Amino acid sequence: MRLISLTPRPAIRSVASPVCRIDHRIERLFVNVTVEILAPCKKLMRVEVEPAKIEETFEEITRDFQRQARFPGFRPGKAPKEMVFKRFETEIQDKVKSKVITDSYRAAVAEQKITPVLAPDIEEVQFTRGQPLHFVATMETAPEFALPEYKGLRAQREIGGAAPADIERALHLFRERQKTFLTVDRAARKGDAVVVNYSGTCEGKPITETASTAKGLTANKAFWIETEKDSFLPGFSGQLLGAKAGEKRTVSIDFAADFMLPALAGKKGVYEVEVVEVKEKLLPELNQKFAESWGAKSLEALREGVRADLQNEWNQTQNRKIRQQVTQALLQSVQCDLPEGVVTAETRNLVYSIVNENQQRGVPKEALDAEKDNIYATANNMARDRIKAMFVFQKIAEKEGIRVEQTDILARLQTLAVEHKMPVEKLYQELEKNRRVEEVIHRPILHDKVINLLVQYARIEDVSAAAQNDIITVP
Question: What does pTM read for this prediction?
């Protein structure tokens, strides 16, 4: 029968988590232990504990109860041991059994040099006072693999930077942010905004009868559509070009096969549209006043600032690509099995994150339900990459003596606290409560330090954009 898990089973633990740090100084508490390999990363351990250790633990636990027990006619802690044991026999037996199994499990794991990555499942075979205790522990373990040569990994860096055309595009975006609109008495042109009232149908019925959550797609009044951006539905604004205020038009739409609302995917929509106003877009001139509005002393200073920002962004992008390349090269050179329980837990976490992120973006539940198989497959692949990286990076960190220091932890907590708009103390309490300190704090810091080492020793080749190899991102 299932008896006990030594600690609550976490979502995921790294190989450096407390459940895996076994004290090798623990005395040998058992008379026999055997290990059976169930799978590449799963072991079954049978342990037999000697009666003397069980009896010693009974004495220890009983004394603890004796010190705390209160009986009429006896001073605190002075009640006879036999009386205490009789009163609390069931509680004492449960504590003895739990302590003996926990202590002997840790000792056996240490002796067998096993590295568990999740809390074990413990099954009791026999527990009778005066006889050996037998139990079986089933555990998932870290994969065994040899580290490849990780110094001197190859990577490519694209030659280039901020080109004049890039600077002009950035300045145009700055102008777009300060755009204004002027109502005009003429037909709509490309680049204008058109203010409309509309109502839509699908297969002759209001769109909400086909997709109940699509209220915004069914009808609206005084709705702005920028024709240059095709800002509503693909193909919608193009059918309004040439229309004037007061004019009515019928707009036909083909919903794409991968439309965000599955109920409308591949179907046709028909909209009755009334043009209320036509508005011409006005952009500010590139002059001294415009430069000063962005905090620059002159237009030339603004251009130089934009160039510096674009160059910095370029450099960051190249550095990110180099980190991705060396990480990919390292992981591709390691072939190992993974503990499926850890992969399953990480997959579950990623599915939750993907769904939550899409819900915040406004993707409806039915659309997510329709994609649940794809979401799971994506999450599972990402989980395997992450878990593999976790074990490989951990092994490199141990070999190189890379550690997570308190200053690293504080710096990351402060960064996360700013991002989440929370006090540092409250953020840490939340992470501890959800047992995510390892996942959110320690693991990213350690991985970042290992990747920094890989980049430090990498052989980086400067190439043109056309020659650079495709890069696959590894989470």
Answer: 0.72
